Amino acid sequence: MIMLSRRKALMAAMAWGTCSVAGSDTAKTASGKQTGTRYIAAYDTESPSCLAGCKAIVAVHRKYQMPATFFIVGRTLEANPAEYHELLNDPLFEVASHTYSHKMLRDNPFCGSEISPEDKRTEIFKGKEAVDRVFGKPCTGLRPGCGFVNGFREAPDVLGLVHEAGFRYTSSLLWGPDYSMPALITEPFTYSSDGYPDLWELPGHGWHENLLKNNNKFGPSRMTLWPSPMPEAIPPGFVTTPEEEFAVNKVFLEKAASTHATFLSFIWHPWSLFRFDPGMKMLELTFSHVRKLGLIPCTYADMYARLSG
Hints:
This protein is of the alpha/beta class. It contains 11 helices and 14 strands. The chain has one domain (6-308): Glycoside hydrolase/deacetylase (TIM Barrel, Alpha-Beta Barrel). The strands form 5 sheets. Strands 7-8-10-9 form a 4-stranded mixed sheet, sandwiched between helices. The protein has a 3-stranded parallel sheet with strand order 12-3-14, with helices on one face. It has a 3-stranded parallel sheet with strand order 4-5-6. Strand 9 (189-191) and strand 10 form a beta hairpin.
């Protein structure tokens, strides 16, 4: 596949108003109003079946000239380093860490218990090293497997390792209250109260889309709060079509725009997206609506750079 030239990518970024281009603090909506809310397409790339999904996803991103962050598990990357390098080594994309093997850095009621201190070091350091090695540049972001209701707040052992490894931001707050779905539109923050004022938390929002489709085969489970703080984002059952999935996304996109949120980013998984919608119609619908609303596409690294000054 022909890679985008840096000039072409820069021209596209200017047209879209991405975070990495100077002077792009606002963009116009279809009605001509100004918005400063960013949109980040992000993918938890965690299993062997993600490679086929990433190929389909990247094609849509190039069509729409849409930036993205791919959080990739170290072992997944090491299994196909040349293929992922060819696919994602592109000015449109950021590649960040999704740990080394997706083990739990904290207790998660759906995904399991936290691992030992030694294993935490392995997950954090080896995951970063894999991305650094394959892409030849420092990896600045970490998203832990499954995420946690409070991110890494009050987890000094993990924060110490994250800081030592050289990460600049984490994306670990990926649930609503009491490990419910959806994750609310939570604003970014630093871990100053835990002693790391320069480490940013950039949350994910909405549903873990694999749960929204029952692709993990959990079946009907306790996933939502009652009463819900965002009932309009809870469908009556598992979504069954790309249009139904987009309808859920649309709720978040429009709420983020109307409330002038700093950014919005869904929690997506290439293997699940490809299984459900190999033609990636949901992505096309979502990206078209991002453009209509005047949200400004960028990567997590762009968002970190903007926030950290």
